[in-house]
Structures are given as C-alpha cells and as structure tokens.
Amino acid sequence: MPRMTAADIDALLAASFPQARGFCAIEAIRDDELDCVVRYRDAFLRPGGTLSGPTLMTLADTAMYFLVLAMTGPQPLAVTSSLTINFLRKPPPADLHATARMLKLGSRLAVGEVHLRGGDEPRVLVAQASVTYALPAAA
Question: By residue range, what is the domain housing residue 45?
Fold first, then answer.
C-alpha cells in the first residue's frame, strides 16, 4: 500500500524541494508502481526533432524518486545512487510517459526500473532505466 498520495508528494516537494515541482505530473500510484507524464515542450527538443536524452533521464529519475516517496513516506533526503538508461528508439516530439516499478525496497536502498513511452504508440518503449536510490538512515 502506498504511504503517500500524489497530493502528499506535491506538498512535501513544496515544503522541502520546490525546484523539483512542475517537471512532470503523477498520473497514478499503485502498490509498487507509479505512472507520470512530462508534457511536451519545445525546450526538450534536440537537433533532429527528438526529445533530448537529458529529458528522458530526468523523467526516469523523477519517476523513481516519486515512487520511493510513495512507498517509504516522506524522505526528501533519498538520493539517486545509480541510474543506467538504455535508449531504445527515437522519441517523437510529444508527451513522454513513465512507469516506475519497484524491484526491491530495503532499509538502505530502493531498486527500480522505469519504462518510458512517447508519441501515439503508448505500448512502444523509447527507453528503459534501472535506478537505485540510497535511503537516509533511520533516526
């Protein structure tokens, strides 16, 4: 069961990490998964009319951060310790969707996978990322 809702996560970000707000929106939170979307902006394009790698990497990292918060509760000091991304196909200039799934949640590390999809074919992956978060020590 998730410990935080999308509204809870937004309130935590507003109080602790306001610069992380507004990049993407949480669409759904399930037991061990989270869906979010980043709305298309011209600023995300790179030459050739595709979404930039940094945009995809930021969405993968953000989706996993939100999932960690949803599953562990308010831990704004959780930090990325590893992010590996595989770019699978050229993402079109359109909204980009992410599904983050928790693979293992321990007391010190959270390991997950993020699938990124874009354009008119929501089932076609444009990238896949493996993301590990280091969790703060219990007080």
Answer: 6-134
